[in-house]
Amino acid sequence: MQTIGDRLDTFFDSIKDEEAQTYSNYWETVKPKNETEIFQRYLFAFMSVHTTWKMNCLGYNGVKDFKEWGGNREVLRGKIYKARVGMHNNRANYINLFHDNFWDSPSSYVDRQKGERWTNWRDRLAKNILGLGKAKSSFAIEMLFPNDAEVACMDVHLFRLYGLEQRQAHKYYHIIEHDWVERSRKRGIAPYMARCIYWDRKQNRKNSRYWSKVLEA
Hints:
Blueprint: H1 4-14, H2 17-30, H3 35-47, H4 53-63, H5 73-83, H6 88-104, H7 107-110, H8 118-128, H9 133-144, H10 156-161, H11 169-187, H12 191-202, H13 209-212
Helix pairs in contact: 2-12, 3-4, 3-6, 3-9, 4-5, 5-6, 8-9
């Protein structure tokens, strides 16, 4: 019977150099180029909370043109409700607040402060952004810096890979995230690329475009 370490070793050993490079090249093309696209990556992260990837994409498409609802919570709520992504009241509250905070001071959400560690930036974002938490704040950072970020969205699937339940996140998040990042470094692949490969394989997909294509436009 495989141990947790064996399962992780088997996965990372199975990543081919060509596969890793293909993922890296693709995600570099999807990397946001301006503050508008950066804000939209956060929107995608908000819409990923407690939903499937299909509903995540539908919800994101419903709100990504934020100039249609910016500053108007009820219009935003209506768009979220129409998308049937769930949690429409909370999402509207969280996203509306984030919209105002982001555009009031974009620099806090665009990149790390000088000398700030990736995990410290993520923890600061998770503390300041109502409605995301560590995992989804990490997801936003992954999409902003796909080939550079040294954090990982340790979702329910990765917690299970480590033999844990996500309710144990408060105690173990940093521990297993550090392990994932270190294993990725030793394999020579960005932590987010490793996570994408793991997730896509679970979906029986060869790349991320079945969902990430909504970020290309």
